[in-house]
Design goal:
The chain has six helices and no strands. By secondary structure, the protein is an all-alpha fold.
């Protein structure tokens, strides 16, 4: 059985943004769960380390899938929307990498907190922009690879519930 079979048939007629919204909501919830403790003034190295582990593993995996999905959607997006989505994706990537680097050092609580806030804000913006760009698109436009990516995103959401 392929992972594309995970995409529920009932969702075939829904726009992608309707399906992506709960996926993004869960991703943002997870990001806040791991990064918010590092925003506290007394956050110690181990609190930051837990956040670094999250952004290096689960966050990165989700980011890569989302980025690949946006790439799959590129032919169906207006050129300015596609350009903006990829610029925002690059910003999320830069912030994640910077946070990873900062979080591995001791004595960086304030710098890490600022970076975590920036990453959370940029992630929320990027997810919203993806949803806006996908509001006129339906899952049937996806290539088999895009359907697999979409199925993985949906499966991750179901697992998280």
């Amino acid at each position: 059985m392929t992972t594309a079979a995970v995409v529920p048939i009932a969702r075939k007629d829904k726009s992608l943004n309707v399906v992506l919204r709960p996926i993004h909501t869960q991703w943002l919830r997870d990001a806040h769960r791991f990064l918010d403790p590092s925003l506290e003034p007394g956050a110690n190295f181990w609190t930051r380390w837990a956040a670094v582990r999250y952004i290096s593993d689960d966050f990165l995996r989700q980011y890569q899938r989302e980025h690949a999905l946006v790439d799959e959607l590129r032919p169906f997006l207006k050129p300015h929307a596609a350009k903006r989505l990829f610029q925002e994706a690059e910003q999320v990537c830069r912030l994640r990498l910077a946070l990873d680097r900062i979080g591995r050092r001791r004595g960086t609580a304030a710098e890490f907190a600022g970076g975590a806030r920036d990453l959370l804000e940029q992630l929320g913006l990027w997810c919203t922009e993806i949803e806006l760009a996908a509001c006129d698109l339906t899952p049937d436009i996806l290539t088999p690879e895009g359907a697999d990516l979409f199925a993985h995103l949906e499966a991750e959401l179901e697992t998280a519930r």
